[in-house]
Design a protein that fits this description.
single chain, 18 helices, 25% helix, disordered N terminus, 594 residues, seven-stranded mixed sheet, disordered C terminus, alpha/beta
């Protein structure tokens, strides 16, 4: 893409709101990764062969665990006894290359020192791209946005002040969402096709089968009934962005919903399809493939988004690297500027800054030595490094490397880090619950009042241990249900022909919604406050099961156990042994060890 009239026409014709071609790309969506890259890529490869399809893109919704070496493991909020190297280091070192272009956001179990090197996003390994604290990029004309971390009210108004070595407080606060990132995302005017968050938008559970969710996760009932489950910040972004798809993870359960937003002016109401997925384990619904139409005239690789980069430039002076509370500017007479939306001129300036080239460069570089199984360093200290990708982008656009700035605070910031915590329970993260020790900017934020017991929440200790008895009881039942009573072949991957969304709680009469998703998304700005209603059963069926939509557009994937299979048999189907504590391995690996 070059500067001049052609560039301007391309930018202003807005591929986000123009025609879509008949062809579509297949996007694999994965829930919590937990470092299981080899298993996820193996599963995608198997599905491609079995179904005769080609997956174009993999989206991972957090807990990616981009651990490069032993020092990185000390920057991840998991108990020491559950810290495992997993397989990312192989992709970081170059031993392996991701077979599918992978885009991910951060969750609450990450090598935080690694991801902090890339506050605006970047490559963590060849073909694996991190979206940053918050980010929007384009792939084949599709706008993909994301917000890393989870919501915690007590840290929401602080700056990104953390840097390694972390103390027990900053080890967790480093992955908590900040209001500056949400403020940036709320400046977006052009429609988003896909958005990712690790924790759920608060209230989304009212737009799907709430009863089925509570049957799977009984401990969520109190939060659901009091509407305190999930992130109020993500709820606000969902109302503003109104993306076609919103993907999440965190709660380790598959849940689908369809939300119709209030119409804006004379435009047709937009609809968001929400999907949360499980983590990569046997008999868990952790992967789903979705067909998304490509845009006409779009490029093949990842591209920067001019509107987003213009917003980053405009809001650069608002960024803070201290733990002191901060509120974004408002139209209340106290601020000289409160509107940071990107103008046409600002977007054109970004294109000029990039010399007319929007393609994201393949400029991955290693900043620390990768793990070497033959030369372990169990006592390696956490690293603190700036990343050349961030340095280059900041120089090009005039941005601040906030990770470098936080580190330059030295001992002064270190002393502040040790005194900013307050008491915080280790069970903070299962429901994105907040603390009541600091006022929230959300008038209805009751996240600090949650008190129900969550046996599957992230208590730091217990997340990594599967409930073995529960799984053993469920495996046979789920397998039989999936194959309608027939015996499930050993290692067979379950791929229902289409996504079936649960019935919502609604008594609203049906409307003419079956063709809404075929309409080009209208351009919009911040929505006015309005009541949002769930869709009725007939509306949902029209959106997700009827109309012109391909019934094979989405496939649910479950990894199954082969413990009952013949250990001597071998075939093309990957046969996975269920892990008994922290990881499961293939039967082939087990035999090699013997």
């Amino acid at each position: 893409m070059r500067c001049g009239r052609e560039t301007r026409d391309t930018l202003l014709s807005s591929p986000f709101i123009t025609r879509t071609c008949l062809c579509s790309m297949k996007i694999a969506v994965e829930g919590c990764c937990h470092g299981e890259l080899d298993k996820i890529y193996e599963t995608i490869s198997y599905l491609e062969k079995k179904e005769g399809v080609k997956v174009d893109l993999l989206l991972c919704c957090g807990d990616f665990q981009a651990v490069r070496n032993e020092g990185d493991m000390k920057c991840m909020a998991v108990p020491a006894k559950y810290r495992m190297m997993q397989t990312f280091y192989k992709y970081y070192s170059g031993e392996k290359k991701a077979p599918v272009l992978t885009i991910f956001i951060g969750g609450n179990h990450e090598a935080s020192n690694h991801l902090q090197e890339l506050p605006y996003g970047g490559w963590v390994a060849p073909n694996i791209y991190y979206l940053g604290y918050a980010g929007v990029i384009r792939y084949k004309g599709i706008r993909i946005g994301g917000l890393s971390g989870i919501f915690k009210s007590r840290d929401y108004r602080k700056g990104h002040h953390e840097f390694p070595p972390y103390n027990p407080d900053t080890l967790r606060s480093v992955y908590h969402i900040r209001n500056i990132e949400v403020f940036k995302l709320k400046q977006i005017q052009m429609p988003i096709d896909i958005f990712m968050s690790h924790d759920w938008p608060r209230g989304i559970y009212y737009y799907g089968s709430t009863g089925e969710l509570l049957r799977k996760k009984k401990f969520l009932r109190q939060e659901v009934e009091s509407n305190t489950l999930g992130s109020p910040a993500a709820e606000e972004l969902l109302a503003h962005l109104q993306p076609s798809y919103w993907f999440s993870a965190h709660l380790h359960v598959k849940f689908a919903a369809v939300m119709q937003h209030p119409p804006k002016g004379n435009a047709a109401p937009r609809v968001t399809k929400f999907l949360s997925l499980d983590k990569c384990l046997p008999y868990r619904e952790f992967l789903q493939i979705v067909d998304v139409p490509e845009r006409l005239g779009s490029s093949e690789g990842l591209e920067y988004d001019p509107e987003w980069l213009a917003i980053l430039k405009a809001t650069n002076s608002l960024q803070r690297t201290t733990p002191h509370p901060w509120n974004p500017p408002e139209n209340n007479g106290l601020h000289e500027r409160w509107d940071f939306r990107a103008s046409e001129a600002a977007m054109m300036q970004v294109v000029e800054d990039l010399s007319g080239e929007l393609a994201i460069p393949d400029n991955f570089s290693r900043t620390v030595p990768p793990f070497d199984p033959n030369k372990p360093h169990p006592h390696a200290a956490p690293s603190y490094n700036t990343n050349p990708q961030t340095t280059e982008l900041c120089a090009t656009l005039g941005l601040t490397d906030i990770y470098a700035q936080a580190g330059q605070g030295g001992d002064e910031l270190g002393r502040v880090q040790g005194s900013t915590g307050g008491e915080e329970d280790d069970d903070e993260d299962g429901n994105s619950v907040g603390s009541v020790d600091e006022p929230s900017e959300y008038p209805t934020d009751t996240s600090g009042l949650s008190s129900s017991f969550n046996p599957d929440e992230i208590t730091i200790e217990d997340e990594w241990e599967e409930e073995e008895e529960e799984e053993e009881g469920k495996e046979e039942e789920e397998s039989k249900a999936a194959v309608t009573g027939d015996k499930l072949p050993v290692g067979e991957i379950l791929t229902p022909s289409r996504m079936v969304l649960p019935e919502p709680k609604s008594d609203v009469s049906p409307t003419h919604l079956p063709h809404l998703m075929n309409l080009p998304p209208p351009s919009h700005s911040t929505p006015a406050a309005a009541a949002v209603r769930p869709l009725s059963g007939a509306e949902r069926e029209g959106l997700c099961e009827g109309g012109d939509e391909d019934p094979t557009a989405a496939r649910i994937l479950k990894r199954t156990s082969d413990e009952t299979g013949d250990p001597g048999s071998r075939g093309t189907t990957p046969r996975i042994k269920r892990r008994n504590q922290v990881i499961y391995t293939t039967v082939e690996d087990e035999e090699c060890e013997d």
